[in-house]
């Protein structure tokens, strides 16, 4: 279980969209093995924020934002619930197929089979994108190529599935239709439903943190919205990338976001030079700057409140696990990735190509 959580925490929530770009994405996750987590989960995101959730324990799709609670009726959630129940059975079968393909049929360890799909829409340029891809145990399994309306199989184990799905030309036409029409239409509806939330701009709170005098200095920005942000370092007025580690953008439980950047530098070095953290948030004109000085650093040894800060951050990360566990475990490994693709259904969601891989 510990290794599984660490793997989940290590991934990103896709790429960060700009203020003019809106996204609708779904993540289906099936898990087998000895793990204290639902066998199947569905997470829906609009503009990288969770708006719906389903799992095989509750067998009920539920809203995760106030604007969704107010905007759609019981028939919508009944429909999403039925889609989730059907997808659960397909994914339960498919994870066993994947185990057989990889000669793991007798394995008692934890295995994860996932689907990620959705679309993006630039409300200024009008451009759209979409994708459908599957992953198994942190690796790419198969993905749809929108241009050729065929499937890409990166491994010998997924070739059988590619050949079967390529032959279903009618369904692959529906994949394209979902991307170019249905998904975009629902995305526009959701953006309109939640515009008071999704179109807002919230500036960040920026802090400099350090565990010990010899530890890296962390620039932590939190509470900002939208998710588009850059947390960078400057030395004597020039961009500085040496010995800098950039963290992922994570969602807070209130729908805002947080991100960190870690600078490894000796006290002598930063005391003799001007280091500063610069935070730039999409939609906010001003930069948020923290100059690296002894008085600005919050540490374990000179600030008792740092314990509270650490507790809050850890709590937020644990909350993120509940959402992110449905959000592409294989994402980092697939940055060289698949061609953008699509999915299909007659509604905002799609259980479709979760159908049998055999």
From TrEMBL:
Family annotation (SUPFAM superfamilies): Immunoglobulin, MHC antigen-recognition domain
Gene3D superfamilies named in the record: Immunoglobulins (2.60.40.10), MHC class I-like antigen recognition-like (3.30.500.10)
Positions of the Ig-like domain: 204-280
Xref: InterPro entries: Ig-like_dom, Ig-like_dom_sf, Ig-like_fold, Ig_C1-set, MHC_class-I_related, MHC_I-like_Ag-recog, MHC_I-like_Ag-recog_sf, MHC_I/II-like_Ag-recog
Biased composition, class Polar residues, residue ranges: 341-358
Keywords assigned: Glycoprotein, Membrane, Signal, Transmembrane, Transmembrane helix
Location of the region described as Disordered in the Swiss-Prot/TrEMBL record: 338-358
Pfam families from the UniProt entry: C1-set, MHC_I
Signal peptide positions on this chain: 1-19
Cellular component aspect of the GO annotation: external side of plasma membrane; extracellular space
Membrane-traversing stretches: 306-330
GO biological process: immune response
PANTHER family reported for this sequence: MHC CLASS I ANTIGEN TRANSCRIPT VARIANT 1-RELATED, MHC CLASS I-RELATED
Assigned protein family: Belongs to the MHC class I family.
Protein's UniProt name: MHC class I
Species this chain originates from: Salmo salar
Lineage start: Eukaryota, Metazoa, Chordata, Craniata, Vertebrata
